[in-house]
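Handout, section B. The chain below has 461 residues.
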Amino acid sequence: MTLPTPAQQLARFAADLDLTQIPDEISRQAKLLFLDALGVGLAAGDEPYSRIALEVATSMGGASESSVLGSAVKLPAPWTALVNGIQIHGHDFDDTHAGSVAHTTSVNVPVVLALAERQRLTGAQVLTALIVGIEVTCRVGAAALGGLHKRGFHTTAIAGAMGGSLAAGRCLKLREKAMVWAQGIAGSSASGLREAYLSGGTWTKLYHPGWAAHAAVMAGIMAEHGFTGTDTVYEGRFGLFRSHLNPEEWSPNVLLDGLEDRWEILNVVFKPYPCGILNHPYIDLTLQLMSEHNFTASDVDSVIAYIHPEAARTVCEPIGSKTHPASGYHAKFSLQFNIAAALVDGEVNLRTYTDEKSKDVNIVDLAERIQYVPDTDSAYPKTYPGRIDIRLVSGQTVSASMDYNRGSRENPMSVDEVLQKFLTNAASVIDRNRAQSITDMVLDLENIKEIQKVTDMLKRL
């Protein structure tokens, strides 16, 4: 008897998942992630990359099927998914999965929103599809054992397209075989290069989750119409993992074991800061030490940050471009800049990452005095830890460490903090009363009869 392939097993999981059998903590986590994604997407709606994406997508024409976040515009579902994916990932304020370093909602929320509105789904159907997509995205990313990032691929784009294809399949009510096809089709669209955001901070990184969402929607629709896809897309001789990694660099057990028992969605991290998550513990530690020891940037002589060597490749190297970021967006992926900004401003928020701020002499001068030391004992990428020494001009050195970043399962943001983050992000587009109504509906998503009630509330005033 031939064993089912990974794609077949994941298709069965996606087709059979019953919301009423899912533990409450899973549904609660998915609803908070959904709300968080809506907020960060709304906050990026006026950014130039969002306007360009909307302009290009609108120029393609087609049916008015699905709503763009913060806009009155409706586009065909695949193009809406592209634009919303770019917006949700725009400020790099969206969640990250510990273990894979993949952003989950910037792909799966656009997929589910676009198709749910097109298909006129209920909130319960939306919630189920979202859980499917996020869980599989996490598992595909984690199964690569960190190898995708090492090879220069953006895990979000690759894992997201795969999880998103099953979220799309669930929205489209595909039969199990068609869900296999959708994964097979998506595998040939799953792509994204880390060079896109580590070489100067262009907008291409934002395109990755947008394209993955677009690809996932297209894969689902093509499969719905009978377009076939390989059922060995993951493990085949030239499948996703073997084409991107060496045979020993991925784990089928991480991908498949414990479906419906071991939930990776619980390891998805909410972000308190709108920048690369590797910076977060160092920002918190810097602010903590400033508060505990009552010093400011002018009192700082130098800083040493201890960081896993693979993480350092992302946020510490090359040193020249990290201490002198090319743009506000590039600054989001510089550990030196983020520690220096926290020291100079005493806070980190969306205003930290403007192009003007990236050239702030006070921040840049201090960034040059921040060194990093490889920490091979770091638990990264299973967790996002941090350790820092700050030497003061007085000669005193103050130190702190953090095993789990704030927002993680082990060091969570409170529900109130997540809700407040949504309200703050949404404030640029909608008034507080409407934002509160959206909050109430999302937290009760399983009882919403039609998702249109939510999407109608997300339009600009």
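Note. The longest helix spans residues 123-143. Compare this with the example in section A.
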